[in-house]
Amino acid sequence: xxxxxxxxxxxxxxxxxxxxxxxxxxxxxxxxxxxxxxxxxxxxxxxxxxxxxxxxxxxxxxxxxxxxxxxxxxxxxxxxxxxxxxxxxxxxxxxxxxxxxxxxxxxxxxxxxxxxxxxxxxxxxxxxxxxxxxxxxxxxxxxxxxxxxxxxxxxxxxxxxxxxxxxxxxxxxxxxxxxxxxxxxxxxxxxxxxxxxxxxxxxxxxxxxxxxxxxxxxxxxxxxxxxxxxxxxxxxxxxxxxxxxxxxxxxxxxxxxxxxxxxxxxxxxxxxxxxxxx
Length: 278
Hints:
The structure is a single chain. By secondary structure, this protein is an alpha/beta fold. Helix content is 38%, strand content 25%. Strand 2 and strand 3 form a beta hairpin. Helix 2 (76-88) crosses helix 9. The longest helix has 22 residues, at 3-24.
């Protein structure tokens, strides 16, 4: 037996043994650590099957998602998911959820996707949730009253209250600044809208927010725009993505394909202008 033949035999024997080990393994065999098991939407729907996809969102994050006075979900991300549902034949259910626990709800299966201006961060993009391609870019900001003439350093070391949204990247920024040794009190509220109101009411001297929310908000609230200003930005540009469970391979493919198609079409520009994002 020459060297080439011997090597071939060894490789074939290894592959046969590997296959036998897979098919003959006990039913209780442990799943390798880090393996991603197929999820609810791992494969294409069967012929005649209609997927019911539950869309989780923040009920008070305009212009991306909010609940209108009549109880319906509206916003930029709502329009995106509605377009995808029509394009792919999903039955889409919009379900508002507290932002602080929305990732847990996705993990547990209470929700199937999160499309609500969710930032793609290393902490979130783990084995718990996987994101679509990015679809919107923004930057974090510190907002104060127009009459406040302090520098950023003076504000962060004032010992006074700075508001943010609970469970959001703005709260992560507040925690990061506190860990760096700055001296202020964090006020975590349920939405950016509530945080801005805390600034206007005098319960906070500043708000950590983001341009994706704040710029469109000022365009639709000129009375607020006349009273506040951006003192500083924080960090560099960040992006939004649509969150899915890791094992929902085919659903994520449809979302990515849909975003590619939508962002390449004139409708994307129309939606940006509709929601004051363009």
